[in-house]
Amino acid sequence: MIELRPRAELGGARHGWLDTRHHFSFADYHDPLRMHWGRLRVWNDDSIAAHSGFPPHPHRDMEIVTYVRKGAISHEDSLGNIGRTVAGDVQVMSAGTGIVHSEFNREDETCELFQIWIYPDRSGLPPSWGTRPFPRGERAGAFVTLASGLPGDGDALPIRASARLVAATLFAGQVAEYTVDPGRKVYLVPARGRIEIGDAIAGTGDGVAIRDEAQLRIKALEDSEVVLVDVR
Q: What is the pLDDT of residues 30-57, one digit of tens each?
């Protein structure tokens, strides 16, 4: 099953400094049919105005992955971590027993990012945070694992969930394939461009919910960047 979820039909809000779209129920947007996708709980598509952001706020028992699409986001937390994540890179925060953090766009341009929340396999673990550069060129034409809690993905940023986040940059006409193990689900969003997957055509910001598919074939109809989460 491959289900297209057009960006124009997603929930969301405009707050002046923040333009956000919610692929799943979040904040004031509630859809009982879109509460989660397996262990994937949140996929927010945020545009954060220059010199603005989220003041300190708490999280607990959630794996939070931030994929920056444009610009940069600056992070500070109650563990003393300070970092700046730029376009094409990811940061991972394991909220564990509790963490307070802030996220600010300190740049002179809008920051665009995906923030993705995944339920952890275990609760009550110590919180942690990390970031890592993953140049887009390294994933040209094929999916590269950026964050994972699955065996064999030791080069990726670790998360405490049976999940994997991968990304690929594709030139028009290129095809990338991804194998899905039995019993798992996939959620895919083009960060830019336009792709074909099965009978669906997805553009920038559209969601694609996938289950009961063993092999995915993603063809770029124009130069594209694709982010995919694999969960149980």
A: 999 999 999 999 999 999 999 999 999 9
Closest CA to 65 of 14, 28, 122, 116: 116
Beta bridge partners of 112: 47, 70
- DSSP secondary-structure letter at 37? B
Query: What is the band of 112 on the pLDDT scale with cuts at 50, 70, 90?
Result: very high
With beta carbons less than 8 A apart as the criterion, state whether 168 and 20 touch. no
> DSSP of 83-142, one letter per residue?
EEEETT-EEEEE-TT-EEEEEEE-SSS-EEEEEEEE--SSSSPPPEEEEE---GGGGBTS
Compute the distance between CA of residue 9 and CA of residue 178 in angstroms, rounded to an integer. Answer: 26
Quick check: helix, strand or coil at residue 17?
Answer: coil
pLDDT tens per residue, range 123-168: 999 999 999 998 888 899 999 999 999 999 988 999 999 999 999 9
In whole angstroms, give the CA distance from residue 147 to residue 145.
6
- In total, the chain counts a number of residues equal to 232
